[in-house]
Amino acid sequence: MTTMFGINSSISSMQATNSQLADYQNQISTQKKIQQPSDDPVASQQIDTLRRNLSGNTAYQKNIKTATAVSDQSNAALSDISTQLSSIQNKLQQAMNGTNSSSTRDILAKEVSSATDQINSYKTTTDTNGNALFPTDSSQLISYPVGDNRSVAATLTQTQVFNFTASSGSNSGSSVDLSTLLEKTQTAIKNNDSSAMGDALNQIQDAISHMSDAQGQQSVLATQISDQDNRLSDQAVTLKSTKSSYEEIDYAEVYAKFTASETQQNAEWAALARVTSSSLFDKLG
Question: Which uninterrupted H or E stretch holds 138?
Answer without folding.
Answer: none
